[in-house]
Design a protein that fits this description.
3 domains, FAD/NAD(P)-binding domain, 19 strands, alpha/beta, single chain, 8-stranded mixed β-sheet, 7-stranded mixed β-sheet
Length: about 550
């Protein structure tokens, strides 16, 4: 039975009895399917506006891919996204007053750190000048180029991020283009040429040193497309915005964001059902009327049903192709989900990685003054060619033979994540195809590939191999099973230009509404895409409220 959750960790509470017909307790103004961070963002804004809202989550806890679970006897492990960056470029945390509901952020500074192949290192700090000083130790020319890079792309992205907080209608995109963020009229052609370039091209033409190139390419690759793909330049350019907002971590784990959202939602009268898998979204006369659970319970929504599930799952499984207008079912089937993305292992460790490029004294570690190599994203990718080779293996349908890795060691800045004297170490890697071409199966090779990631990390931090005591593997198949991210794509759909802005997921679905009345979409498969951003949830809420006459598009509640 569905559990109506309440309490600190939103894992369940009292249950409602089975009903075949909706009764008042089963009637709501709005229903949100899925308690990921975008679904909860939408739900919070709807409840804040005074609507009666219910959220249904198939798992026994809220959060989706922004959740933290206890493992290995006292380790608080994220099971999805970990670094919180883009959400700080939205008003969501401030407007929902999430700090009042237990959310506390810790700065990751430097937010990225890169050991070089010749034993040096460079760091990316929130402060631009400190970053430039770090780069200058590698290349004085690249240090000055970085200043120009940040100035150029920072101006561009002020406009881009404004467009992220509105539906991607032609009018909104045109206003962004005309806003002056793209430079003087004489510079527009040059600016557009850069925007439509690949991020590999932009990095190579801007910087000369291999460490700067490799670190920025690997940062940009976290969005998915390879360095050579056209119209991806801003995947490296948007990092200019981190110098404005910073990169942060919720104290207690990534899931503390969604826990705070759930508390905020319930404080405004919202209802959360956990362990409540949806069988179908009920549709009558081309109108979404509610949901039916796997156990047969029916719940109705008079104003809106919002799905935070994968768009393909929503439209083809929960709604059903028989309820879609002509051609839409095929267009949804044709969406490029891709062949996986990456994999991660989440390790319990006796020690933090001790990098040969910047060694530390374990006895001198202090969470109030952490070692620079441990605060943020640790970029283990020695060269652009190394990254290209890893992607080439992916195209062959095999896991990267020599994978690029990204380490995160958040217990260095938040010691409560692990038992006293212990640590958490996450090792994320790309590229790992969901569908393997060599006849192997992920259930058979996941341990082998996990050990490969440890081997790569141990090249840079030799102590790590013996320090790791246990690990939790998330292969592309594991990611699909746990989070419903089809084919293990953590962005839901490929983040290529033909599936961004007005094309994400399709033109008729891009503004969060659908051809089915009262049915709306939110999540990584909609504008502006994946990551811990909350912009999609924010935009969806405003579209629903405007449709219901509860809020003008511009202005406060």
């Amino acid at each position: 039975m569905a559990r109506c959750s309440s309490g600190r960790d939103f894992r369940g509470g009292s249950s409602f009895p089975l009903n075949q017909f909706a009764v008042p307790e089963h009637q709501f103004d709005c229903i949100v399917v899925g308690a990921g961070h975008n679904g909860l963002t939408t739900a919070c804004y709807l409840a804040k506006a005074g609507l009666k809202v219910a959220v249904f989550e198939r798992r026994d806890m809220v959060g989706g891919a922004v959740a933290t679970e206890e493992m290995f006897g006292g380790y608080q492990m994220d099971v999805g996204g970990s670094a919180h960056i883009m959400i700080h470029l939205t008003p969501v945390i401030r407007e929902l007053e999430l700090e009042r509901f237990g959310l506390e952020y810790i700065e990751m500074d430097p937010f990225a750190w890169h050991p070089t192949s010749d034993g040096r290192w460079l760091a990316y700090y929130r402060d631009v000048e400190r970053t430039i000083e770090s780069i200058a130790k590698i290349s004085e020319r690249d240090a000055e180029s970085y200043r120009e890079f940040i100035d150029f792309w920072g101006a561009i992205n002020e406009g881009v991020f404004e467009s992220f907080l509105k539906p991607p209608t032609p009018g909104n995109l045109l206003r962004t283009m005309m806003s002056g963020k793209f430079g003087k009229k004489k510079d527009v052609a040059s600016t557009l040429r850069k925007i439509f370039s690949s991020y590999g091209q932009i990095v190579n033409e801007t910087f000369e040193s291999e460490p700067v190139r490799a670190s920025l390419l690997w940062l940009a690759a976290q969005s998915g497309p390879p360095p050579s793909e056209p119209a991806t330049a801003d995947f490296v350019g948007w990092h200019s915005m981190i110098h404005k907002s910073g990169a942060k971590r919720p104290r207690g784990g990534s899931g503390m964001l969604t826990q705070a959202m759930a508390r905020r939602f319930e404080s405004d009268g919202g209802t959360i059902f956990t362990g409540a898998a949806i069988r179908r979204i009920t549709v009558k006369n081309n109108r979404a009327t509610g949901v039916e659970l796997e156990n047969g319970e029916l719940y109705t929504a008079s104003g809106a049903v919002v799905s935070n599930a994968h768009v393909v799952t929503t439209m083809l499984s929960l709604v059903g192709s028989e309820n879609l207008p002509g051609g839409l079912a095929k267009r949804v089937r044709d969406l490029r989900i891709g062949n996986g993305f990456g994999m991660i292992i989440r390790c319990a460790s006796d020690e933090l990685p001790n990098y040969t490029a910047m060694p530390h004294d374990p006895a001198a570690l202090d969470p109030d003054n952490p070692h620079p190599s441990h605060t943020g994203l640790q970029l283990l990718c020695p060269s652009a060619q190394y990254l290209d080779h890893a992607y080439a293996d992916y195209l062959r349908g095999i896991p990267s033979r020599d994978p690029a890795c990204l380490l995160m060691t958040f217990s260095a800045i938040d010691p409560g994540l692990a038992p006293a004297g212990k640590h958490t170490v996450y090792i994320w890697s790309q590229y790992h195809p969901y569908e393997l071409a060599n006849g192997e199966r992920w259930d058979d090779i996941r341990e082998r590939e996990a050990e490969k990631l440890i081997d790569v990390a141990s090249r840079y931090a030799p102590n790590l191999r013996n320090a790791i005591t246990d690990y939790y593997i998330q292969s592309p198949l594991d990611i699909e099973r746990k989070h419903g991210m089809l084919r293990g794509n953590v962005m839901h759909l490929e983040m290529s230009f033909d599936q961004m802005f007005i094309f994400r997921p399709t033109p008729e679905l891009s503004a969060y509404s659908t051809p089915i009345e009262h049915l709306y979409l939110t999540g990584a498969g909609t504008h502006p895409g994946g990551g811990i951003f909350a912009a999609s949830g924010y935009n969806t809420a405003h579209v629903v409220l405007k449709k219901m006459g509860k809020r003008k598009w511009f202005g406060a509640f």
